[in-house]
Known about the structure:
The structure is a single chain. The chain has 337 residues and is mainly beta. The protein folds into two domains: 5-190, no CATH class; 248-331, no CATH class. The protein contains one helix and 29 strands. Strands 24, 25, 26, 27, 28 and 29 form a six-stranded antiparallel β-sheet that branches. A hairpin with an 8-residue loop joins strand 22 and strand 23.
Amino acid sequence: MNKIRYEIDPYNRLVIDSSGRKTSLPKFRKVIDGRFKVDEFNELSYHVKAPCPEDELIPRQIKLKGEWSLTNDHMLRLTLDTLGRETFGDQVTLQGEILDVDKNSLLFAVTTSAKDNIRSTYVLNLEGTWKADEFNRLSFHVKKEGGKYDILSLKGVWEVNKNHQIIYRYEKARLIRKKKEYHTLTFQGYWDIKDALRISYLLGGGTDSSFDFETSAGIFMEKYIKYELGIRASGRPDPVRRTITLFGKWNLEKDAGLIFEIEYGDGGTKRIVFGADAKLTDKDTVSFRLRNDPDNRDMGVSLELSRKIFKGDGEAFLRLLKSNKESAIYAGAAWRW
Length: 337
């Protein structure tokens, strides 16, 4: 009996090679219509559509185990474990594109073709967590059974759009259509700052997904906060410099502290909250020494703001500052004025 070997064609269909070796001869190879699926632990399987002849011992579902990764062309690849290689090659590379991203998922669109040459597209939904790697690149940690994970690295350079959102653009060659296509992924989230040398982009509540980027020291001004960082992209000898400028407005709020409000372009506003030691100056300004609220850790950042910008609770805080003359007062959740 010949050993059966499975392969994948350019249309993401299962190909059976009953000769047990790679060959271009059509009599040894047969295309089996079906679709790939992933389960709750992101294990891949191929579900056969039509029943096969009785003399071909092909199961209706073929499970594949291995390690997920992305190719340089942003294809989804599964490197099979030792057991999988007995009937498959070392790798399964799915032709397609990253369709969308969410706070806990990556959607990959797969295009296939039936025997009547009608093409259709379906989506594989990988679940996991988004993180930044040590090179400040975006990466997706694919959830596996037993608390393990595989890492899909977006090896290109990301940027920030006018709505303060992270976007990732990539270019890829389309093998079937013989042309290049351009894709843009938008990460819905908001910025947070807990350290002078680190800035974070959170992808929503109820999730561990966040990009924590290592940066140079931040610059804090009356109308913006600015950070600079480097991204070590694939194929580039030197890191690509990126400047993150968050435009917003400062205020003081009772029971919270010093806040910086950012509008994200969709009608939503998010706040970055700091603790701060505050002191009046002789220049009609207030000098702040920022602290990590609620940990109350000194961030090593100083900020000077005009007294005129503060309204509401901020005005009450300024009156308290004046009554204390030269003394500094802490503004934060740990102390309420």
